[in-house]
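Hi V.,

You were right to ask for the full record rather than a summary. Here it is.
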Amino acid sequence: MATSTTRRVAIFLGLALVMGVTRFHPSLLHHALWDASWGVFFLAGFWLRGQGRWAFPLLMAEAVLVDYLVISGQGIDFWSHYCVSPAYWFLLPSYAALWLGGSWLAKRQQGLNLRTLGLAVATLLVAEGVCYLVSNGSFYWISASVPAPRSFGAWLSNLGDWYLPFLAGTAVYVALGAVLHVLATQLAHAAPRSSHARH
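Predicted structure:
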């Protein structure tokens, strides 16, 4: 139990660190890294399934705190920033979609095989798509930063402009997480065999 709890805390801290560093990127990294937030929430849902009561709210709080620090650090009032509007709070269901996608995948994956890979790709596309529709749609239709008149056609055009970059960034971080998952799984399976061979 202690080992399992320690592992969960270590995973959470690792994901929180990655999100914190990359979410700070406008001021610290000069856009050298994509924001990992979307990938982090998907991976957290996968690796921390069943821990949503504490892990999800803490990651959400971190995301908002980093946004506040970045915006206020530029001498701008948080609530008057371009990206902060009533639509900002739609990040909650947006990120929840990613978390739930990762959790759904964790419950249904069946080991390291092609079926799991295909399921992972499909699940990520659906979860990321829902996240994107909610976050982009809320910003377009609710935020005062988007000039009127608004139209469904213009929104679809806006969706198309930004979808692939957001998908690519998310996919890169999830792919890196998948590589780490495969390596950790292989090492975990190799350790008992190695111990048994010595005896």
